[in-house]
Write a structure and sequence with these properties.
3 helices; globular
Length: 73
């Protein structure tokens, strides 16, 4: 398969983003290092922001609010 033939569905992008956000936020909640917590929450929000930009105009009801909420401690 060539790189140009790869296709992503909205569901695949949304699911992958949700998994990353949850992973980053779980680590952020578990660390006692404030700098690491900040970095991880920024990474989670970056994943959300990337998802938002890729899917704006095609988002399903509730997905934006649900993913954004996951980025909060």
């Amino acid at each position: 398969m060539s790189r140009t033939s790869k296709r992503w569905s909205y569901t695949a992008i949304t699911n992958a983003t949700e998994v990353k956000i949850i992973r980053y936020m779980t680590e952020a909640r578990e660390t006692t290092d404030a700098a690491k917590r900040h970095m991880l929450t920024c990474m989670a929000y970056g994943a959300y922001s990337g998802w938002y930009e890729l899917t704006v105009g095609w988002q399903k009801d509730g997905d934006d609010q649900r993913l954004e909420t996951l980025t909060r401690i």
